[in-house]
Amino acid sequence: MADRCRPRANSAKSAGPQEYAQLRGQTSPATPESKIYTELVVLLKETFDPTKSIYRRRHDILMTRLPSERPTEEIVNLANLRGDEFSFGDLTLDTFKIFLMLLFCSDLFYKNIRTVILKAVDDDKPDITTEEIRCLLKRYETRTVDAEIDSNSAAVKEEISATQVNLVRKKKPVQKLNFHANSSPSAKEPRGECYGCNGNHLRSICKFRTAKCHNCQKVGHIASVCRSIKSKPHLHSVLVNCVLSGVDLTKGEHSLLLL
């Protein structure tokens, strides 16, 4: 009885802690040791046999990297184990060249190219040649370029549409009025009614400021203004006196105007 149980115990315990825990989960609630040897072998194959293609297993082996500060014994043992799994006896020259392609394209930039190669060399076509891989990669590049052209064309159309919409919606800038009289040398001076000649300009620039009235013989206005003031009896006499005496109403004296 002990001899029959020994192979079962040795087979189950020969696996590492993680593998044994995985095997224990497969046999739960029973234990791996409770299985007969043939049942245990079948269970081990179902649980731990490789599910990847030979190309993918070889690729994973070639991409294996050890962390720093590992002992030399572990390095040699890992090389022996992974070398046995590589199935080097079945490796052809084309297969070796394809693995070189994968190693050459290990940079992240070539991620999509690596995916194309790995998909092509799967177990569905294990005898694929490097020339067939070349054709697949050419077609992939063509599709990629076409996709970029379509994408750029769509982006250009969107940009043109956005520009046209902006042109339609664009409003003319509102011209700001400058209310500062001295902001520009060419700014026009404000205009007003001159009380010396009834002209549409400031009293200070009137050319009749020193003119002598032919009506009343006083200086500072012309006769037509003098006659028009006398013809309006409703104006206060103060206004008449101010105008006739040549008072400059633009300097504040226009407050004397009484209606």
UniProtKB/TrEMBL annotation:
GO MF annotation: an example: zinc ion binding
Phylogenetic placement of the source organism: Eukaryota, Metazoa, Ecdysozoa, Nematoda, Chromadorea
Protein name: CCHC-type domain-containing protein
Matches recorded under SMART domains: ZnF_C2HC
Transmembrane parts of this sequence: none
Superkingdom in the source lineage: Eukaryota
Region annotated Disordered, chain positions: 1-31
InterPro entries associated with the record: Znf_CCHC
